[in-house]
Design goal:
Blueprint: E1 4-10, H1 14-25, E2 31-33, E3 53-54, E4 64-65, H2 66-79, E5 83-85, E6 89-93, E7 99-103, E8 111-118, E9 122-124, E10 140-141, H3 144-147, E11 155-159, H4 163-172, E12 178-182, H5 192-200, E13 204-207, E14 210-216, E15 223-228, E16 234-237, E17 241-244, E18 248-250, E19 281-283, H6 295-317
Parallel strand pairs: 1-2, 1-8, 2-5, 8-19, 10-17, 11-12, 11-17, 12-13
Antiparallel strand pairs: 3-4, 6-7, 7-8, 9-18, 14-15, 15-16
Length: 318
């Protein structure tokens, strides 16, 4: 059986790496299990590894590439002594302390932990159409707040019919000359107030019963092939960007039956904290944030989780 670690962090996006930096500086000798490069659900570095230029993270006035930002965070965590393990967690047992964590196909627990910080993040649901993944970060985006600025005075498309899609579309009209809102049905799923705002916005054109079939472009998006879901007629839609807003999926399957979750699958934390229903287990970043979903808020909650874990460990010694 492995020795018991004071802190094990699962996930290595902005939340997990920030938690590692703080716990390492507190001499808690954290282990961070960062995931595997081949995995879509626990990509080391999180969703920023799939982005290009990041301009809204404080401290980088000229912007920074997403992978570079995460590599810098990783190097900073390592500098303070974090043990970074490139592997995928296969099972956890939070029923008693020390908590048990399995990696890969290990039969016995790989790690025992006094505290665990869960930072496994969430992934944007994608369309899985040709050109989408190839042009991700080069005109295809899942975050209007992150990338809207790059589309000033351009025509773009937003895919989706829920609150998130309409919120993204309204936000993007601050920059784009026109937003084509592609809705696969003949009605919106969004709340009435969001529908009213979108329909009243002269820059938004709602394109009913329409779905994208392919994203075209060499270096950046040049146009889409879309289909009318009623007539099956295909046509080209000339836009320089496509924002996919069909929902997010938190990476929480590993914790089902052990940690409390919201109906949408996100982990539940006590308001204003990262404390879960299991004492000694903390949740930070997008795995418990279904509202903001920003790198900076994830990093902030990683700091919270580290402080929560440090104070909880201290309380156990009293």
């Amino acid at each position: 059986m492995s020795e018991t670690k004071e802190v094990v962090i699962i996930g290595s996006g902005p939340a997990g790496l920030t938690a590692a930096i703080y716990t390492a500086r507190a001499s808690l000798n954290p282990v961070i299990i960062e995931g595997e490069p081949s995995s879509t659900s626990d990509q080391p570095g999180g969703q920023l590894m799939l982005t290009t230029e990041v301009e809204n993270f404080p401290g980088f006035p000229e912007g920074i590439m997403g992978p570079e930002l995460m590599q810098n965070m990783r190097a900073q965590a390592a500098r303070f002594g974090t043990d970074i393990v490139t592997a995928k967690v296969s099972k956890v047992d939070f029923s008693e302390r020390p908590f048990k964590i399995w990696v890969g196909r290990d039969e016995e627990p790989t790690y025992l932990a006094e505290t665990v910080i869960v930072s496994t993040g969430a992934q944007s649901l994608m369309l899985d159409i040709p050109g989408e993944s190839r042009l991700m970060g080069y005109g295809v985006s899942t975050c209007a707040t992150c990338d809207g600025f790059f589309f000033r005075d351009q025509e773009i498309a937003v895919v989706g019919g829920g609150d998130s899609a309409l919120e993204e579309a309204n936000f993007l009209t601050k920059f784009a000359s026109k937003v084509h809102l592609l809705v696969r049905r003949d009605e919106l799923r969004a709340s009435q107030i969001m529908q009213d705002r979108a329909m009243a916005n002269p820059k938004i054109e709602i394109v009913w019963n329409t779905s994208p079939l392919e994203v075209h472009g060499e270096q950046t998006v040049s146009h889409l092939t879309v289909v009318d879901n009623i007539t099956k007629e295909e046509r080209e839609l000339k836009v320089s960007g496509m924002f996919v807003a069909i929902g997010h999926k938190p990476n929480t399957a590993l914790f089902e039956g052990q940690l409390d979750m919201k109906p949408n699958g996100y982990l539940v934390a006590e308001p204003g904290t990262t404390i879960t229903n299991v004492p000694g287990v903390f949740a930070s970043g997008d795995v418990q944030d279904d509202y903001y979903r920003q790198a900076i808020t994830a990093a902030g909650s990683g700091c919270q989780a580290a402080l929560d874990a440090e104070r909880w460990l201290e309380a156990q010694q009293d």
